[in-house]
Amino acid sequence: MAIKPGNLGSKADPLPIPSAFANSMAAAIEAELNALLLADGLPTLDIDNTPESRDRRRLFAAIARGVVRHLHDNLDAIKVQRLDSSQVSPTMQVEGL
What we know:
This protein is mainly α. It has one domain (about 1-95). The protein has helices spanning about 25-40, 50-75, and strands at about 80, 85-90. A two-stranded antiparallel sheet has the order 1-2. Helix 1 (about 25-40) packs across helix 2. It is elongated. The two termini are about 15 Å apart.
């Protein structure tokens, strides 16, 4: 499975969560913000494809895409150590950049 940072999809998409956004890192960020709002007794986010939701999701997608791009561009900084102490360079599959 590839890492999916997320994208906005079409403004005309009738789904409340466009497929380009669904199951992405950006969608996970949105879900976590909603959970934190709920935990503090604050109003939760509208989950729809309105211009306001798209504005919020644009920020989440930008953050997720920036994180994934940075990790992808700096793979040499990531080291995975096996139990036998040998180091390997991990590979990373990225979708949608």
